[in-house]
Amino acid sequence: MDYRHIANTVADNLLNYSKDESGWKMCKKTNEVAVFWRPSSEFSGNLYKGEGIINGSPEKVWTCLKPVPDGLRVKWDNNVKKFELIQSIDDEVSVCRTVTPSAAMGIISPRDFVDVVLVKRYEDGTITSNATNVGHPACPPQPGYVRGFNHPCGCFCVPIPGEPSKTQLFSFFQTDLGGYLPRSVVDSFFPSSMTDFYNNLTKAVKSFKEN
């Protein structure tokens, strides 16, 4: 499987999502984030977009966000219980397994996801994570977890000109949780989990001390 090619395609998709303003409908707004949705072109569910300003430089925000084993992400993100490296493809691309806890008062049981992840930096200083589901022989479905599937998803840490201590953060999620969940549960879960994501990230960046 050409993981690098898949990852590059995901990065192109996410860049297009970030530039395409058509069809988005706001579904939730807090002090930290506005969450929008539109039908996904990848599967039968929705594509969600979060937009918010984080008080912290892009590098500081990225340190809290970056998808690495034993990183800060598992400490503050309530939706990430464990993050495992399955295979390192090159300096920018890896195949990873993410384990999520039960959610929605136990209606959503623990999930795991296997994704190829590309960390890409753009010339303007933007730092991005770009991921989508893949198969990997070293990580078949495992007992105790429903295998979910992330369609192209990720985060953009965008510098704000003239404000080096702030970051515009875009996030994109379109996830097939797998199993037999009522559509209403899925549709209410993602906007809420995304607002929690921004709220907890804001707190993590605030408490983060650079070494």
Tally of contiguous helical segments:
4
Structural class: alpha+beta
Low-confidence stretches: none
- Span between N and C termini? 38 Å
β-sheet strand percentage? 35-45%
Mean pLDDT over the residues: 93
Order of helices and strands: HEEEHHEEEEEEEEEH
Shape descriptor reads: globular
Helix content: 25-40%
Largest beta-sheet details: 10 strands, mixed
Computed Rg: 16 Å
Total beta strands: 12
Explain how this protein is built.
With 211 residues, the protein is α+β, with helices and mostly antiparallel strands. It has helices at 3-19, 58-65, 73-76, 183-207, and strands at residues 25-29, 34-39, 46-55, 82-88, 93-100, 111-121, 127-133, 146-147, 149-150, 153-160, 163-173, 175-176. Strands 1, 2, 3, 4, 5, 6, 7, 8, 10 and 11 form a 10-stranded mixed beta sheet that branches. The chain is globular. The N and C termini lie far apart (38 Å). The mean pLDDT is 93.
Which tags fit this structure?
alpha+beta; about 210 residues; 12 strands
Short description:
This protein is of the alpha+beta class and 211 residues long.
